Amino acid sequence: MSVRMPIFRIWPAPATGALDDAELTALYGRADEPRLRVNFVASVDGAVTVDGYSAGLSGEPDKRVFGLLRMLCDGLLVAAGTFRHEGYRAVRLSAPRRAWRRERGLAEYPTLVVVSRSLDLDPEQPAFADAPVRPVVLTTGAATAPAGLADRVDLVRVGRDTVDLAAGLAELRRRGLGQVLCEGGPHLFGALTAADLVDELCLTVAPLLAGAGPGRIAAGVAGPPRRLPLRHALAAADGVLMLRYARDDAGPPPAGAAPGG
Predict the structure, then answer these.
(1) pTM of the entire structure?
(2) DSSP-based three-state secondary structure for 47
(3) Residue 80 — φ and ψ, nearest 5°?
(4) N or C: which end of the chain has fewer CB within 10 A?
């Protein structure tokens, strides 16, 4: 039985320069089976925000991987609180990334999926009003939709008073959204972890001490620890670490396999 060992790479490498998008795509890849990948940025002391927003932790390496992971996914999952607070806009991709998706038989854009127990959502928010693909909202049977929301999105009711995340993911997969990328927030990540639904975590560690106050990347009801082995580590010249962890049954793509399967 082969043993998967973590791959350590310097980015940019001293001799060969920065990793290009093709190399990064090969490292992160797509899987043949359904997968839930979570992406977060945090300070070295674990803070998920600076001055209330994640942008204070993000730099060029994180933004590159952030965009790449969106290119690789079928569905982009986000909690309503993060969606509102971070001011999400329509999920769009550059022309080369849209072409990459078309070449692999994928829709040009991933589908935005918002998790909202209460449906406290504005149908005129740009992420809905300007979406190139009709978004999906996972909600409860008890929630009342505001006027106009059902004209903008597909409402998927899973659970009576709380959103049944396992049922929601199953419905996304039934719709062909097998590769789902979650961008938070912490309570959604905590709930997905507690339900044992997380296959992979991509974590950017910013070389910054944020100090006491900000929340951490997971919050909510505690669950049992889950083993998540390290698959690769990328170190940027400015001290940023890009870490990828995945459970044993969701390891990296086979060597030589073309991403996008």
Answers:
(1) 0.86
(2) coil
(3) -60, -40
(4) N
Q: How far is CA 217 from CA 19, 53, 56, 131, in A?
A: 27, 12, 15, 27
Strands 179-182 and 35-43: parallel
Number of helices followed by number of strands (H, E) in the chain: 8, 10
And the tokens for 29? 């890849």
In whole angstroms, give the CA distance from residue 79 to residue 226.
Answer: 22
What is the spatial distance between Cα 105 and Cα 102, in angstroms, rounded to a whole number?
A: 5
Place of tokens 């790479």: 9
Closest CA to 181 of 244, 228, 126, 239: 244
Burial (0-12, 13-18, 19+ Cβ within 10 Å), 257: middle
CA 47 to chain centre: 18
Which residue type sits at 37?
A: R
Q: Residue 19: CB partners within 8 Å, gap ≥ 6?
A: 9, 11, 12, 13, 27, 234
User: Which parts of the chain have pLDDT scores under 70?
Assistant: 1-18, 52-57, 249-261
Question: In the structure encoding, which two tokens stand for residue 46, read together?
Answer: 């674990």
